[in-house]
Every structure is written in C-alpha cells, then in structure tokens.
Amino acid sequence: MTSNTKANTKELFNHAFDVMKLLKAKAINPEEAKEHANLIKQANNLLKYELDKAKAYQKYENIEVKDIENN
Fold first, then answer.
1. At what angle do helices 30-59 and 9-24 cross, to 10 degrees?
2. In terms of CB atoms within 10 Å, which of 36, 47, 54, 60 comes out highest?
3. Radius of gyration of the chain (CA)
4. Contacts of 11 (CB under 8 A, 6+ apart)
5. How does pLDDT run across 11-70, given as a tens digit for each residue?
C-alpha cells in the first residue's frame, strides 16, 4: 500500500494478500510478513475506532469526543 492510498478495509485486505504472495515467493521473510500483519492490525483498529465514533455521533446528537474517548 502506498502512502497516497486511502485507508479502507478493501485496501488493507489487498495489502495483506500482496504480503502473503511475497512471503510465498520468498521475496520477504516471515519476520517482515509479521511486521506487516501488525501494521495492518493497527490500521484496522483505527478504522474500527472511526466507525464506532461515527456511530456514536449519529446515535447521540450532542455527544462530545471526550465523552466517547473516556469510556
């Protein structure tokens, strides 16, 4: 995934499968693949947080971000 690519679930899956192909072709070692997997996991957690925050804004019209993040 390049730095100018939007972060979304589809792109994360594409990157994960590209990493698996590189690992299978022995273009990268298992440790590098593991590092990519950890980054993908962190990015997915951020996307989940953004989705949860958007749901909270939609459900509670006058909610403050600090109210969401303190729980």
1. 170
2. 36
3. 16
4. 1, 5
5. 888 889 999 999 999 999 999 999 999 998 998 898 899 888 888 888 877 766 665 565
